Amino acid sequence: MFAPSPWQLNSYVEAIVIYRDGSRKPWSFPRVEQLSLIERIPKERYRKFTEALQRDENDVLWTDVARRIARLNTTPSNPVKTVILVQKWSRIVPSADGSYEPQPWDQHVLYGYGVKPEDLR
Amino acid sequence: MSLSWLRREWNSFFFGEISPTPIALFRIFYGLLVIATLLLLHSDWLAWYGPHAWISLATMQSVEPGIRLNLFAILPPSDAWVWAFFWIFLSSAALLTAGLLTRVNSVVVFLCLTSMQQRNLFILHGGDTFLRLAGFFLIFAPAGAALSVDRLIRMWRGVEGRIVQPVSPWAQRMIQIQLVLLYLSSFWWKLKGAGWVNGTALFYVYHLDALRRFPLPPWFFRPMVLKLASWSALAIELSLGTLIWIKDIRYIVLAFGVALHLWLDYSLNIPLFQWDVLSAYILFVDPTDLARAWNWAKGRAQVRG
C-alpha cells in the first residue's frame, strides 16, 4: 500500500460535457471526500479509478470513459457532441516547519473526445 | 543441519498433519469478506462490469492481452447476464462461508473473483489481490473439514465421528507464505520510494483528502510522529514478513500487525483492505490456543447464562 511513494496530490477528474446546441455542463466522478462516512465506503473504488485515469500510461482508458460520460449525459433532443476530461489538482507540500497549508488548485486537460452517434446507443 | 534434517522439516512443515480448525475459520472469514466486497460493489455493479461499463471488455483485453481467466469474456454481453454472474457469485460465497459443497464453491468463488478482477484491474487494492491468491489455494485446502455444513452432513451419515481428524496443511502453508510475501514485497517496494526511507511518506498519505476516514488527534500530524509512524510501518511489515515464523514471538508480531491494520482501518478509507489481510492471521494461530480460547469463551458464556 502506498509504495513505492504515496500519491502527492489532492486531485479529481471532472468532465466538461458539450452538447449539440453548444451548451456546456460540468460532470464529476463521485468525490469521496465530499460524501458522508457511510456513502464513501462503496464509492471508494472511484477514488482508485480516477487516480488511475490521471496517469498518462493509462491513456487507453480515456476514450471508454468519455463515451460512458456521453451516454450518461445525453438527451434525445440535445445529444452530447464533445466530452473533455479535466484533471484538477492541488499539490501536497510540507512547509518548512513540517506543517501543511493547502495549495491552490490547478487544472490540466487530459483528453477531448468527439462523440459519435454509435457511442450513444 | 543436514539434507535429511531439511527434508524432514520440509515434510513436517507442509505435510505433517494438523487440526483443520484454522483453515476452516479462514474459510469463514474469507467467504464473509468476498460477500462484503460484492455487497459494496452492488450499487455500481453494471458501471464496473456491465456491457457499457467504464472500461469496455475490449479495452481491458488490450491492456491484458493473451489468455486470461475471465468469465465475462464468454458471457453474453447483456445486463441480465452480468447480474446473473453477481447473484451466482454471491450465492456461492455464502455457501462457501457455511461450508456446504465447500470444494465446488471454492472453485466457483475463485473463478468469479478472478474474472471480476480481470474485467477491471484499475479499481483493485492489495487486499483484493490477496483474496484472489488465497482463494486459489483454498481450492486445494481441506477447508470444509471443520466448522462446516459438509462436516455435519458427514457426521449425520456416520462417515465421520465427533472428533475432528487432522489434515495435511500444505495449502494452508501456501496461504501463509502468500501473506508473508505480501508484507515482504510491500516492504521492498516502500524501500524504493524516498518518502518511506526519509520518513515523510505518511505526511502525504494523511493529507490525501479522499482517503480520510475518522478524525485524528492533532499530535499525530507532528512531523516527528509521522516520521516515526512511517518507519514503524516499515519495521512491522518486515517483522510480519520474517519474524512471524518464530513461534516464541509470533503472537507479539501478530499483535503489532493487528494494531497497524486497525489503526489504518480507523484512519483511512480503504474499505476491507485491512480485513482482507487480517483474515489470514488466523492461520498463524496454534490450533490448541484456538481450542483454549473457545473453551474460555464457552465457560464465560455458561457463567453468564
Distance between the amino and carboxyl termini of chain A: 39 Å
CA gyration radius of chain A, whole angstroms: 17 Å
**Helix amount of chain A:** 10-25%
The stretches of 5 or more residues of chain B where confidence is low (pLDDT under 50) are none
- Strand composition percent of chain B: under 5%
Instruction: Tell me the overall shape of chain B.
Output: globular
Low-confidence stretches of chain A: none
| N-to-C series of helices and strands of chain A | EEHHEE
Describe what this molecule looks like in 3D.
- The complex is a heterodimer of chains A (121) and B (305).
- With 121 residues, chain A is of the alpha+beta class.
- Chain A has one domain (9-120).
- Chain A is built from 2 helices and 4 strands.
- Chain A has a 4-stranded antiparallel β-sheet, with helices on one face.
- Chain B folds into 2 domains: 18-168, no CATH class; 174-294, no CATH class.
- Chain B has 15 helices and no strands.
- Chain B has helices at 3-15, 21-41, 45-49, 57-63, 79-98, 102-119, 126-140, 149-156, 170-191, 194-198, 201-205, 223-242, 247-267, 273-278, 287-304.
- Chain B starts with a helix and ends with a helix.
- The chains are: A alpha+beta (121), B mainly alpha (305).
- At the A-B interface, helix 1 and helix 2 of A face helix 4, helix 9, helix 10 and helix 11 of B.
How is the secondary structure organized here?
The complex is a heterodimer of chains A (121) and B (305).
Chain A: E1 9-19, E2 24-28, H1 40-53, H2 62-73, E3 80-91, E4 106-114
Antiparallel strand pairs in A: 1-2, 1-3, 3-4
Chain B: H1 3-15, H2 21-41, H3 45-49, H4 57-63, H5 79-98, H6 102-119, H7 126-140, H8 149-156, H9 170-191, H10 194-198, H11 201-205, H12 223-242, H13 247-267, H14 273-278, H15 287-304
Search tags:
heterodimer; A: 121 residues; alpha+beta; 4 strands; elongated; B: 305 residues; mainly alpha; 67% helix
